[in-house]
Amino acid sequence: MNKLMETILHRRAIRRFAERQIEEAALSQILEAGLYAPSAGGRQGPIFAVCQDREVNERLGKIKRANSRPRMASGENYVSREQPSIADDPDLKNAFYDAPTVVTLFAPKNFLFSGEDCAAAAENMMLAADSLGVGSCYIGQGWTAFADPYGQEILKKWGVRADYYAVMQLLLGYPREGDPHPAPKPRREGRILRF
């Protein structure tokens, strides 16, 4: 099996991070992978706001959590038993799970494929992160982190254009020491139709 397939099969969402910041060389490679993601029409619309300020990330993560309304898990309907999400555990107050690096992907408000372009960039970055030993977690509905005066102030401070919106966040950090790598779930049958 080639290295890319090994990385694809190994990558999992990580929601428990070590406190130490990821190394700059690893971060640069991860961001470069995002820059080389496919985009509709080759427009390269998404921009990546990289925040490594623990205070800002914690506050935006709490704002996002307060503005998120996930359907809470129950019985066999859950996101993860190994590393609970905010939908699984109401006691989690930071939607960014204390990740040391949070990349918010912004895209043009008026472009039909903004969400898809950001998702492609995020997947490239998650695969690059895994190949470098960095954990990642994709968090949708990025705009909810900026849905109060503090969030709006941060957007101005970061210089995010008014015609762009936060599509999602990508959390990055080294997996917490001692936590086992999440096990893959069995693949569901019947998802490939061949004719």
UniProtKB/TrEMBL annotation:
The keyword Repeat does not apply. Residues 8-174 form the Nitroreductase domain. GO terms for cellular component: cytosol. InterPro entries: Nitroreductase, Nitroreductase-like, Nitroreductase/BluB. Pfam families: Nitroreductase. Keywords: NAD. The keyword NAD applies. One of its GO terms (biological process) is 2,4,6-trinitrotoluene catabolic process. GO terms for molecular function: oxidoreductase activity, acting on other nitrogenous compounds as donors, with NAD or NADP as acceptor. This is Nitroreductase family protein.
